Amino acid sequence: MPKNNNLEEILRSYLIAVVVLLSGCAAQVATVNVPGIERSVPARITDLRPEKEKQSEIFSLLVTSDAYATYRVPDSAVVPPATRLFQHRAFEKLGADSGPLEIKVHHLVVYRNLQAELRRGALGAAFGGVIGAVVAGQIKAEPSGIVTSLVDPKAFEALTETEFKRALYTEQENPGRGSVHIVYIETEMQGKRAFTRTIVPIKSNTEESPLVSALNAATAFHLTQY
User: What pTM value is reported for the model?
Assistant: First the structure.
Protein backbone atom coordinates (compact mmCIF):
# COMPACT_ATOMS: atom_id res chain seq x y z
CA MET A 1 0.00 0.00 0.00
CA PRO A 2 2.74 2.59 0.80
CA LYS A 3 4.25 1.97 -2.64
CA ASN A 4 0.94 2.82 -4.31
CA ASN A 5 0.69 6.00 -2.28
CA ASN A 6 4.19 7.02 -3.36
CA LEU A 7 3.32 6.37 -6.99
CA GLU A 8 0.15 8.43 -6.70
CA GLU A 9 2.12 11.31 -5.16
CA ILE A 10 4.68 11.21 -7.97
CA LEU A 11 1.95 11.21 -10.63
CA ARG A 12 0.11 14.05 -8.89
CA SER A 13 3.28 16.16 -8.72
CA TYR A 14 3.99 15.37 -12.35
CA LEU A 15 0.57 16.59 -13.45
CA ILE A 16 0.94 19.78 -11.38
CA ALA A 17 4.28 20.44 -13.06
CA VAL A 18 2.79 19.95 -16.52
CA VAL A 19 0.02 22.45 -15.81
CA VAL A 20 2.36 25.06 -14.28
CA LEU A 21 5.16 24.80 -16.81
CA LEU A 22 3.15 24.46 -20.00
CA SER A 23 0.33 26.90 -19.26
CA GLY A 24 2.28 29.45 -17.24
CA CYS A 25 5.60 31.25 -17.43
CA ALA A 26 7.03 29.27 -20.33
CA ALA A 27 4.51 30.86 -22.71
CA GLN A 28 4.80 34.47 -21.56
CA VAL A 29 6.58 37.10 -23.62
CA ALA A 30 8.02 40.22 -21.96
CA THR A 31 8.18 43.40 -24.03
CA VAL A 32 10.75 45.99 -22.99
CA ASN A 33 10.44 49.67 -23.86
CA VAL A 34 13.97 51.05 -24.27
CA PRO A 35 13.99 54.77 -25.12
CA GLY A 36 16.70 55.68 -27.60
CA ILE A 37 17.61 52.09 -28.43
CA GLU A 38 18.28 53.12 -32.01
CA ARG A 39 21.39 55.01 -30.85
CA SER A 40 23.21 51.75 -30.14
CA VAL A 41 22.88 50.33 -33.65
CA PRO A 42 26.50 51.32 -34.53
CA ALA A 43 27.81 48.97 -31.82
CA ARG A 44 28.74 45.84 -33.74
CA ILE A 45 27.60 42.61 -32.09
CA THR A 46 28.55 39.09 -33.24
CA ASP A 47 26.42 36.28 -31.85
CA LEU A 48 28.64 33.20 -31.41
CA ARG A 49 26.34 31.30 -29.07
CA PRO A 50 25.49 27.63 -29.53
CA GLU A 51 22.16 27.48 -31.33
CA LYS A 52 20.42 25.64 -28.50
CA GLU A 53 21.05 28.54 -26.10
CA LYS A 54 18.45 30.48 -28.07
CA GLN A 55 15.80 27.78 -27.75
CA SER A 56 13.39 26.64 -25.05
CA GLU A 57 13.88 23.33 -23.29
CA ILE A 58 12.25 21.70 -20.28
CA PHE A 59 14.91 19.39 -18.84
CA SER A 60 12.55 17.12 -16.91
CA LEU A 61 8.96 16.91 -15.67
CA LEU A 62 9.63 13.82 -13.56
CA VAL A 63 9.57 14.81 -9.89
CA THR A 64 12.18 12.19 -8.96
CA SER A 65 14.70 13.55 -11.47
CA ASP A 66 17.54 15.88 -10.46
CA ALA A 67 16.60 17.95 -13.54
CA TYR A 68 12.96 18.32 -12.47
CA ALA A 69 11.38 21.78 -12.99
CA THR A 70 14.46 23.32 -14.58
CA TYR A 71 14.48 24.70 -18.09
CA ARG A 72 16.13 26.98 -20.58
CA VAL A 73 14.34 30.22 -21.47
CA PRO A 74 14.24 30.99 -25.23
CA ASP A 75 15.29 34.21 -26.94
CA SER A 76 11.66 34.66 -28.02
CA ALA A 77 10.60 35.15 -24.37
CA VAL A 78 11.68 38.81 -24.44
CA VAL A 79 11.33 41.55 -27.07
CA PRO A 80 13.80 42.98 -28.05
CA PRO A 81 15.88 39.82 -27.53
CA ALA A 82 18.48 39.61 -24.79
CA THR A 83 21.41 40.13 -27.15
CA ARG A 84 19.92 43.38 -28.46
CA LEU A 85 19.28 44.62 -24.93
CA PHE A 86 22.86 43.76 -23.99
CA GLN A 87 24.17 45.55 -27.08
CA HIS A 88 22.36 48.70 -26.04
CA ARG A 89 23.48 48.63 -22.40
CA ALA A 90 27.07 47.95 -23.44
CA PHE A 91 26.92 50.87 -25.86
CA GLU A 92 25.58 53.15 -23.15
CA LYS A 93 28.46 52.29 -20.84
CA LEU A 94 31.36 51.66 -23.21
CA GLY A 95 30.61 52.79 -26.73
CA ALA A 96 29.22 56.29 -26.69
CA ASP A 97 32.54 58.14 -26.30
CA SER A 98 35.24 55.56 -26.99
CA GLY A 99 34.88 54.94 -30.73
CA PRO A 100 33.36 51.86 -32.45
CA LEU A 101 32.37 49.12 -30.01
CA GLU A 102 32.89 45.48 -31.03
CA ILE A 103 30.97 42.88 -29.02
CA LYS A 104 31.39 39.12 -29.34
CA VAL A 105 28.79 37.09 -27.43
CA HIS A 106 29.94 33.55 -26.67
CA HIS A 107 27.19 32.77 -24.17
CA LEU A 108 24.04 34.57 -23.11
CA VAL A 109 21.58 32.07 -21.74
CA VAL A 110 18.85 32.15 -19.10
CA TYR A 111 17.75 29.18 -17.01
CA ARG A 112 14.71 29.02 -14.75
CA ASN A 113 14.65 26.81 -11.65
CA LEU A 114 11.29 26.11 -9.96
CA GLN A 115 12.31 22.88 -8.23
CA ALA A 116 11.65 23.72 -4.60
CA GLU A 117 8.40 25.54 -5.30
CA LEU A 118 6.94 22.63 -7.26
CA ARG A 119 8.35 19.85 -5.12
CA ARG A 120 7.22 21.50 -1.89
CA GLY A 121 10.19 19.91 -0.20
CA ALA A 122 13.95 19.50 -0.11
CA LEU A 123 16.00 19.74 -3.27
CA GLY A 124 18.10 16.73 -2.32
CA ALA A 125 20.72 16.11 -4.99
CA ALA A 126 20.19 19.56 -6.52
CA PHE A 127 22.07 21.14 -3.63
CA GLY A 128 25.82 20.61 -3.39
CA GLY A 129 29.12 20.89 -5.17
CA VAL A 130 28.03 20.39 -8.78
CA ILE A 131 27.58 24.08 -9.46
CA GLY A 132 30.34 24.99 -7.06
CA ALA A 133 32.85 23.86 -9.66
CA VAL A 134 31.49 26.35 -12.20
CA VAL A 135 31.97 29.38 -9.98
CA ALA A 136 35.37 31.04 -10.28
CA GLY A 137 36.17 33.30 -7.35
CA GLN A 138 33.98 34.89 -4.73
CA ILE A 139 30.19 34.63 -4.61
CA LYS A 140 28.56 37.97 -3.78
CA ALA A 141 25.02 38.06 -2.37
CA GLU A 142 22.99 41.27 -2.19
CA PRO A 143 20.14 42.03 0.26
CA SER A 144 17.73 41.82 -2.70
CA GLY A 145 18.60 38.15 -3.11
CA ILE A 146 20.64 38.69 -6.28
CA VAL A 147 23.80 36.57 -6.29
CA THR A 148 26.73 37.18 -8.64
CA SER A 149 29.95 35.38 -9.44
CA LEU A 150 32.48 34.78 -12.19
CA VAL A 151 32.42 31.52 -14.16
CA ASP A 152 35.11 28.98 -14.98
CA PRO A 153 34.66 28.47 -18.76
CA LYS A 154 36.06 24.92 -18.74
CA ALA A 155 33.74 23.84 -15.93
CA PHE A 156 30.78 25.42 -17.76
CA GLU A 157 31.57 23.53 -20.96
CA ALA A 158 32.00 20.30 -19.00
CA LEU A 159 28.26 20.46 -18.22
CA THR A 160 27.21 20.47 -21.89
CA GLU A 161 25.87 16.90 -21.73
CA THR A 162 24.15 17.50 -18.38
CA GLU A 163 23.03 21.04 -19.11
CA PHE A 164 20.34 21.10 -16.41
CA LYS A 165 23.12 21.35 -13.80
CA ARG A 166 23.79 24.90 -15.01
CA ALA A 167 20.32 25.72 -13.68
CA LEU A 168 21.10 24.55 -10.15
CA TYR A 169 22.34 26.52 -7.18
CA THR A 170 23.92 25.86 -3.81
CA GLU A 171 22.35 26.35 -0.41
CA GLN A 172 24.73 29.27 0.17
CA GLU A 173 23.40 31.00 -2.95
CA ASN A 174 19.71 30.42 -2.31
CA PRO A 175 19.07 29.39 1.31
CA GLY A 176 15.36 30.16 1.02
CA ARG A 177 15.04 27.83 -1.98
CA GLY A 178 12.88 30.27 -3.89
CA SER A 179 12.35 30.07 -7.64
CA VAL A 180 15.08 31.85 -9.59
CA HIS A 181 16.43 32.81 -12.97
CA ILE A 182 20.11 32.03 -13.53
CA VAL A 183 21.80 34.04 -16.28
CA TYR A 184 25.18 33.24 -17.83
CA ILE A 185 26.93 35.84 -20.01
CA GLU A 186 30.30 35.47 -21.73
CA THR A 187 31.52 38.25 -24.00
CA GLU A 188 34.62 39.76 -25.55
CA MET A 189 34.88 43.56 -25.63
CA GLN A 190 37.74 46.02 -25.61
CA GLY A 191 40.30 43.23 -25.76
CA LYS A 192 38.94 41.47 -22.66
CA ARG A 193 36.88 38.32 -22.25
CA ALA A 194 34.57 37.97 -19.23
CA PHE A 195 32.18 35.24 -18.08
CA THR A 196 29.61 35.89 -15.34
CA ARG A 197 26.71 34.18 -13.60
CA THR A 198 23.82 35.99 -11.93
CA ILE A 199 21.01 34.48 -9.86
CA VAL A 200 17.86 36.59 -9.50
CA PRO A 201 14.74 35.66 -7.48
CA ILE A 202 11.63 35.34 -9.62
CA LYS A 203 9.40 36.79 -6.92
CA SER A 204 10.15 40.44 -6.18
CA ASN A 205 8.45 43.64 -5.05
CA THR A 206 8.74 45.32 -8.45
CA GLU A 207 6.17 45.32 -11.24
CA GLU A 208 8.88 44.59 -13.82
CA SER A 209 8.84 41.23 -15.56
CA PRO A 210 10.97 38.73 -13.58
CA LEU A 211 12.81 37.78 -16.77
CA VAL A 212 13.58 41.41 -17.62
CA SER A 213 14.72 42.03 -14.03
CA ALA A 214 17.05 39.05 -14.31
CA LEU A 215 18.51 40.23 -17.63
CA ASN A 216 18.98 43.77 -16.33
CA ALA A 217 20.74 42.59 -13.18
CA ALA A 218 22.93 40.15 -15.09
CA THR A 219 23.90 42.74 -17.69
CA ALA A 220 24.68 45.37 -15.08
CA PHE A 221 26.96 42.98 -13.19
CA HIS A 222 28.62 41.72 -16.33
CA LEU A 223 29.49 45.22 -17.51
CA THR A 224 31.30 45.89 -14.24
CA GLN A 225 33.97 43.55 -15.58
CA TYR A 226 34.88 46.15 -18.22
Answer: 0.86
